[in-house]
Amino acid sequence: MLAVEGLTIKRNQQALCYSAQLPAGHFCALTGSSGVGKSTLLEAITGLLPATSGRLLWQGERFDQDTPGQRPVTMLFQQQNLIEHLDVFTNIALGVSPSAKLTVQQQQSLQQVTERLAILELLSCSPASLSGGQRQRVALARCLLRQKPLLLLDEPFSALDPTLRHECLLLTHELQQQFGLTVLLVTHFPEEVASIADCYWHIREGGQIDVMSQPHEQKKK
Ligand SMILES: Nc1ncnc2c1ncn2[C@@H]1O[C@H](COP(=O)(O)OP(=O)(O)OP(=O)(O)O)[C@@H](O)[C@H]1O
């Protein structure tokens, strides 16, 4: 379980204070109006933004004092942060190892994941030659291969057209199930994740989170 306990972030002279719990293995959609603090929460969980107080726990263990690299978390941003002068393989491998040198097992996993994401053929390409959807799948592969149990997604597919966005969401859900990940996904289109989300965190002014579970019978398979 991910537990967010009174996690307080100061931004623009206002304090955002978050508390909520997310069971392991759940796919949670994070909603709320623009500027309410959705990205801020994800950045605080990854450790990119310091919290002034509160605690973060994963499976009962505190990680709010850990560096971003030590945390059980990986995050996919809307802008994919690909390194343009390196090929796709190196971009993905750098997420796994700082030297981009992979073990045989890591290479096998990279092959499997990129095949499933339909980007295996693109490993020697430069990011600049890829479409928006392909770039986002490269960034997703990099996140998945880091093998962190918590995957945070900040409007990852919002720049894609609705059909591609839906495909990427279904693929993310499939891989989430396969890898047993716990997912927190920011979306402005909650209806688009209705068939896959286990629950919703709706953020209100000041960071208050309303947690809503989606009964499993309402999840359209
Ligand atoms: N880099 C920054 N420096 C200072 N304040 C920021 C920064 N980024 C966001 N904020 C402020 O923090 C608050 C929360 O912003 P945040 O981006 O987390 O909201 P959001 O819910 O993700 O919005 P959106 O849906 O528009 O992406 C807002 O008041 C915003 O102005």
TrEMBL record:
PROSITE patterns referenced in this protein's UniProt entry, alphabetically: ABC_TRANSPORTER_1, ABC_TRANSPORTER_2
Keyword tags: ATP-binding, Cell inner membrane, Cell membrane, Membrane, Nucleotide-binding, Translocase, Transport
Domain ABC transporter, first and last residues per copy: 2-221
Keyword Calcium (UniProt): no
GO molecular function, one term: ATP binding
Taxonomy, superkingdom: Bacteria
Gene3D superfamilies linked to this entry: P-loop containing nucleotide triphosphate hydrolases
InterPro entries with a match to the protein in the record: AAA+_ATPase (IPR003593), ABC_SmlMolc_Importer (IPR050093), ABC_transporter-like_ATP-bd (IPR003439), ABC_transporter-like_CS (IPR017871), P-loop_NTPase (IPR027417)
PANTHER family: SPERMIDINE/PUTRESCINE IMPORT ATP-BINDING PROTEIN POTA, THIAMINE IMPORT ATP-BINDING PROTEIN THIQ
Protein name: ATP-binding cassette domain-containing protein
